[in-house]
Amino acid sequence: MTDNDIIKLCGCGRQEEAFNGIVHAYTERLYWHVRRFLCSHDDTNDLLQDIFIKIWTALPSFRGDSKLYTWLYRIATNEVLNHLRKRKFKALVSLESSYAAVERMIDDDPHFNGNQLQRELHKAIQRLPEKQRIVFNLRYFDEMKYEDIADITGTSVGALKASYHHAYTKVKEDLQKVIEV
Length: 181
Known about the structure:
By secondary structure, the chain is mostly helical. Helix content is 80%, strand content 0%. The protein folds into 2 domains: 1-108, Rna Polymerase Sigma Factor, Chain: A; 114-181, Winged helix-like DNA-binding domain superfamily/Winged helix DNA-binding domain (Arc Repressor Mutant, subunit A, Orthogonal Bundle), CATH 1.10.10.10. The protein has helices at residues 3-11, 15-38, 41-58, 68-94, 98-108, 116-126, 130-141, 146-153, 157-180.
């Protein structure tokens, strides 16, 4: 089912069919989008359930002013950011560095099937500031156009290009340090 088919179903009041189409078409893509931020299979699955509940609730208000997938990614990204803020607050309360907790999750994740360099790539991405991390993930992994990322984040294309460049440079420097050791 295409995005246009889903939008037509929404317009006809066939929300349940439209939602099922979204779940079928976007579960895997949204899973990996969320997973890149949370670094945990279990946390990702839990948050993905919340994201789909949010999508179900908001679906009747989707007017088609934006592309369906940018609307979905915006919901997912906002939910991820809210989750990360809560996790950061809990880390502050427990006096544990939120980065140290994320790094431990990456190292201990039984579902991670990459090599050590890929593991270090994910750690380097987690060290990026929030905005750079979002842009980097959407551009590098999801290969989104800057215009679509601008729709998702509400940021100008020029600012996104600068953020991606800075993120790319930081990740490259971090990985070069690992390779040299």
